[in-house]
Amino acid sequence: MTHPLETDNVATPNGAPTPAALGFAMPAEFAPHDACWMLWPQRPDTWRYGAKPAQQAFVAVASAIAESETVYVGVNDDQYENARHQLPPRVRVVELSSNDAWMRDVGPTFLTHPDGRLALVDWEFNAWGGLDGGLYFPWDKDRRIRTKIAEMLGIPRFAAPVVLEGGALHVDGEGTLITTAECLLNANRNPSLDRAEMETVLRDYLGVTNVIWLPRGCHLDETDGHVDNLCCFVAPGEVALTWCDDESDPQHAICREALAILEATTDAKGRRLRVHKLPQPGPLYIAEDEASGIDRLSHSHPRRPGDRMAGSYVNFYIGNSVVVMPLLDPAHDGAAREILQGLFPDKRVIGVPAREILLGGGNIHCITQQQPRP
Q1: How would you classify residue 49: left for phi > 0, otherwise alpha for psi between -120 and 50, otherwise beta?
Q2: Active site: which residues (predicted)?
Q3: Which of 25, 50, 116, 146 has the fewest CB atoms within 10 Å, i.e. is most exposed?
Q4: Residue 248: left (phi > 0), alpha (psi -120 to 50), or beta?
Q5: 256 lies in a domain?
């Protein structure tokens, strides 16, 4: 039986019903998935040495997640054969052109309905700031990815009237969303919207009722402070927060500022949040040889020797039976892994060497997007 709207593209800004009004909502990442979506890295001004080292890291991430659920990797046509050769047979490679490989941000935010339907939100995208601090130009291929995935899956696409990236939000699936003012209220995203207006959009498109605002994200995060690098839900009423004990590190104040807000707030169910601290790796910096292999283009974000990277163990992916975490610093990898295993005792925590992903500006959560099970 065909559901209403099953293959329609639904635009809502002009008075049509919003996703929430139709009964759709965004489930938590720790809810069951049908699949995970990724993109293939190849951009030479983001990834060093023609993205060959990054491709190995992406293969490791995709292989780990594929133990848990179906993985789709979207690939530009000129990299299709290379990607198909490198990725294991159980990973599905599809031609899906992109400007870069950050599926969390350029891909859809999926919604589910109590009657079993799946839909997606198509946010506006301007490459993390457009011509005012954006990371590259153009972003035309990225902008079409959500429409293409809606077509591939035959599901409704709700076109949202705001610029927003998936890494800028986390939900608990029970009505609570967490984000940062640094990103969502940034003048290079939606300069005409204030906090109350943005909250209305989040409620209308994601079905949430409570929005927790943290002031800022991780120190020097080039996404303008995505929350998925700082804090995430690991269960209803529980969050993981990156943590720094070095008082001389700018991240020290950011963590404590976030902790004070998290401990003073309640979620949509009236619960006080339990905060689990994940140690910060590093600090980590770009080495000379790591910067030398990157093409220097005037329209892309510079990556220079000595630049500090926004490394974080919070940037992990929660699969059906696995948690895939970045390995970034031998001094802290083990402790972070032990904490995550304690938070997810029924899942296998898989550590993947992820410095090559971090060199591009993000990590495992940034390159993945879960497709929930309706």
Answers
A1: left
A2: 366 (amidino-cysteine intermediate)
A3: 116
A4: alpha
A5: yes
- Ordered alpha helix ranges (H), 24-91: 52-65, 80-86
Structure token pair of residue 362: 């993000």
**226 part of a folded domain:** yes
Q: What is the largest CA-CA distance in the chain?
A: 61
Whole-structure pTM value: 0.95
Let me know if residue 4 belongs to a domain: no
Q: What's the pLDDT at 4?
A: 37
CATH, residue 139: 3.75.10.10
CB atoms within 10 A of CB 114: 9
What is the Cα–Cα distance from 189 to 179, expressed in whole angstroms? Answer: 14
pLDDT tens string 79-132:
999 999 999 999 999 999 999 999 999 999 999 999 999 999 999 999 999 988
* Cβ neighbours for 284, distance < 8 A, ≥ 6 positions apart: 308, 309, 311, 328, 329, 355, 358
DSSP code, position 50:
G
| Contact assessment for residue 322 and residue 68, using Cβ atoms and an 8 Å cutoff | yes
Catalytic residue ranges: 366
Return d(Cα 230, Cα 334) in angstroms, integer. 19
Are the CB atoms for 313 and 330 separated by under 8 Å?
A: no
What is the arithmetic mean of pLDDT over 316-342?
98
Name the amino acid, one letter, at 320.
N
Element (H, E) at 120: strand 118-124
- CA-to-CA distance for 139 and 87, rounded, in angstroms? 26
> What is the strand order of the sheet 231-235 is part of?
231-235, 238-243, 274-279
Mean pLDDT throughout 322-333? 98
**Is 70 exceeded by the pLDDT of residue 3?**
no
Residue of 39, 29, 70 whose CA lies nearest to 362: 39
DSSP for 256-267, written as a single string: HHHHHHHHH-B-
Structural domain for 140, as ranges: 9-372
Q: What are phi and psi of 58, to 5 degrees?
A: -65, -40
Total length of the chain: 374
The total number of structural domains that make up the chain = 1
Half-sphere exposure (CA, 13 Å, Cβ side) for 3?
15
| Amino acid sitting at position 193 | L
User: What phi, psi does 71 have (nearest 5°)?
Assistant: -120, 130
3 falls within a domain: no
